[in-house]
Amino acid sequence: MTDRILVVDDEAGIRHLLQNALTDEQYSVKTATGAMDALSVLEGTSFDLAIIDLMLPDIDGLQLAEAVRMLDPGTCVILITAYGTPSFESMASHPAITHYLHKPFALDRLLALVRQCLGEAEV
């Protein structure tokens, strides 16, 4: 069975980059432009992994990560952000977050984290 990944980012370029890269790796990928859009997608579907941007236009990514984990505690969450502040570092240790990456990130690093979250490889 193909692993299912949800990508949530309000930047179209990041969404498309991640969707294309993950699809090329044979994952089933859905995208959302914000938290409310993501919650609609999550209503009828479960995901193995969610890649969520911290700064979303409606609800912040940490709150969305909490909602994702409440809906399905087995879903891994990778939080991504361009804002690498000390307060973010402490947020990234939140129990709803499996891993985090600072933008810009190396696509190879993200794919390695994806494989680790999905139990395919060690980072």
- What CATH architecture do you see? 3-Layer(aba) Sandwich
> Which assembly state applies to the chains in this document?
single chain
Helix/strand class? alpha/beta
Report the span from N to C terminus: 23 Å
Write out the CATH superfamily name: Response regulator
CATH C-level label: Alpha Beta
DSSP summary, beta strand count:
5
Could you characterize what this model shows?
The protein has 123 residues and is an alpha/beta fold. Helices cover 40% and strands 20% of the residues. The protein has a five-stranded parallel sheet with strand order 2-1-3-4-5, with helices on both faces. Helix 2 packs parallel to helix 3. The model has no long low-confidence stretch (mean pLDDT 90).
Features:
40% helix; Rossmann fold; 5 strands; 123 residues; globular; alpha/beta; five-stranded parallel beta sheet
Blueprint (SSEs and pairs):
Elements: E1 4-8, H1 12-24, E2 28-32, H2 35-42, E3 49-53, H3 61-71, E4 76-81, H4 86-91, E5 99-102, H5 107-117
Parallel strand pairs: 1-2, 1-3, 3-4, 4-5
Could you give a quick summary of the protein structure above?
This protein has 123 residues and is α/β, with parallel strands linked by helices. It has helices at residues 12-24, 35-42, 61-71, 86-91, 107-117, and strands spanning 4-8, 28-32, 49-53, 76-81, 99-102.
